[in-house]
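Q: Convert this sequence to structure tokens.
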Amino acid sequence: MRHTAARILAVLALAFLFIGAVTSVDWPDGDMDQTTSEDVGRTLFGESNSTGYGLVMFLIGLLLLVALLGGVFLAKEEEKE
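A:
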């Protein structure tokens, strides 16, 4: 029972961290026709520690990695003896 509660708390903590990071970003509303690679770099990594989308991209990557590993684990066949 303790392991289940710990897993639930870990999932909830990750979910709150993910939601908090996504909602704290000031998403742009501007026109993207004249965007350069320098603009993309500034937008992704920011010009200071408090700006940019680096944390959001990291959390999305982490979520996709966990989903991929979970899918592999679920698809793995059990060995019969």
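The longest helix spans residues 2-24.
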